[in-house]
Amino acid sequence: MAFWVWIFVYILSIYRSILYTMKKCLLIIISIYLLSACTVQTEDDLKIKERDPQLDISIGFWDIGNSISDEKDDYLLFLENKFNINIIPRNVTWANINQKLLYWGASSNLPDIFAGDILLSDVYYQWIEEGKIRALPEELSRFPNISRITEQQSLDKLKIKGKLYFFPRNSAPDSSYNSAERGILSRKDWREHLGFDKPQTFDEYLELAKAFVEMDPDGNGVDDTVGITFTNRNYLSAVFLSTVPEAASKTWKYEDGRWIPGYSSKDMMKGFNELSILWNEGVLDYNINTLTGYQGFERFCIGRTGMIFTQAKPRKIRDLSVTWKKYNDSDLTDLIEVLPIWLNSEGKRFAFHEGKNFWSSSYFSSNVSDIKMEKILSLYDFLLSPEGQMSLKYGIPDVDFSIKGNKVERKDDRDISIKYPSIDVFRDLAIWSLNFTNWTKDEFSLNISPENIMDMCMEQYLQSKAILNPVNMDIQYMKTPLKSRFERGDSIFDTFYKVMIADDPETEWNRQMDQLKSEGLDQAIEEVNRKALEMGINPPS
User: Fold this and answer.
1) Contact criterion met (CB below 8 Å) for 351 and 469
2) 322-344: average pLDDT
3) β-strand pairing of 85-92 with 55-62
4) What is the CATH code for 55-173+359-437?
5) H helices of 52-73, where?
């Protein structure tokens, strides 16, 4: 009997084992089925991702490393999620941008997007020829906010074989506002305390600057002030506005029956004489050759200088006031004034004028694929759109603000730039957004730049607008084999500095000009004038 019980138990265990195995098989079959169903869905997702893959986009931009870090803020994530991209910052500073771009270009390692002032230069044409930068697509109708800018007739002159190899980063509503790119901010309280009227002539400016050095304008009993400093030495160019305004704006001039680069004018020594007087009289900041970034601002705000050559626009004075508050309890706007450049020997005054409303552009590496370019253009089009501009002012829609009718209702009163550091990059990436809004007295602009700052700048702008020096853009944008070699860009200010500090400025300037002539300056001028004749470009009346 026990034997048959044992047999029964054994058979039962085998049955249970088979049943268990069958259940396992059934579970495996069901799992395989479910996995296959998931695989079908994943393949669909992959097809979608092939059409819209997440892509890394590197951006080379001034001080981007201060705004975008490994800990991404929510505004950056908002843009990355919106366009399915991953932003990689490539940092440059105002001091090293030219060197870094040249290095990246030489090593074929340019960022996908980079900003700079290389248009019309030798480097610009060389990089196009070598295939280092790519053109914008000719068909841009899908990006209406981009095409609105690229279809401007003036840009046709800058096309190469029908293509644009840059995107202009407009910095003002129109070119006349660029007169504010050069201006003089001065300590009104110091001037009034010392009993001086507003200066008009060069001699009056020199006298006031010397008083700022010698007459203890801050009343601290210490000999610790200088007359004039600069945001950086490029602003030395403002000195030439009263003698050769074309040298200040790096434009071409019609002189003695031919077109020449402004810096090669026979009148340059008039400007250099004034510059040398300022230097030799000890009123210029002796640190001028090493000033970088906002060091000039710092020196002005801690009371080390009475005047600063910088930009006379609301955004710049706003930036200055931020630095001011770090060191002072008083209101900067009650203590400063915007001064025009001094009158020339004929009693005339000219304003800074480049003839265009952008000084820098966006460029795109040739390593950028068509798919990536599509994403970049989508990002730019959004940043340029009313929706994008609204987000750049107020933050993330429905998180930081909402629109009720025509009114913006803010949900967070914090400074958006502090809450989202990355927003400063995107405000300036496609255009200099704040340069536009700061000329308009809307709620946002007045929150950034007080009304008295805007009034101060607007008054100076309206005066400058009436005295803009004309620029022939056909000549300016003309391309000849040698012309680009002598579009000196910021390097011309190195030359200005060398002449200014020389024992004999005229001898040094002649030496510098002889060097340029040995490199082909005269031939470049000949080419331009020959082509101007062929194109029927008339001299100014």
Assistant:
1) yes
2) 90
3) parallel
4) 3.40.190.10
5) 64-67
Tokens of 294: 């906002």
Structure pTM? Answer: 0.83
Domain ranges of the chain: 1-51, 55-173+359-437, 183-350+467-498
Q: Which one is predicted more confidently, 438 or 351? A: 351
Distance CA 112, CA 134 (A): 10
Asked if the domains 55-173+359-437 and 183-350+467-498 are classified in one and the same CATH topology, the answer is yes
Residue 174 has pLDDT above 80, yes or no: yes
Residues 6+ apart with CB under 8 A from 366: 131, 132, 133, 134
Whole-angstrom Cα distance, residue 410 to residue 401? 4
Residue 30 pLDDT greater than 60, yes or no: no
Give the model's pLDDT for residue 9: 43
441 CB-near residues (< 8 Å, 6+ apart): 451, 454
CB 246 within 8 A of CB 476: no
The CA R_g of the chain, rounded to the nearest whole Å, is 31
The CATH fold assigned to 183-350+467-498 is D-Maltodextrin-Binding Protein; domain 2 (3.40.190)
- What sign does the CA torsion over 211, 212, 214, 217 have? positive
Task: Find the DSSP H helices in 281-395.
Answer: 295-301, 314-327, 370-384, 386-394
In the chain, what are the helix, strand and coil shares in percent, each to the nearest 5?
55, 15, 35
pLDDT in tens, 115-131: 999 999 999 999 999 99
**Residue 535 pLDDT level (bands cut at 50, 70, 90):** very high
The pLDDT of residue 489 is 64
pLDDT number for residue 293: 64
Neighbours of 346 (CB within 10 A): 7
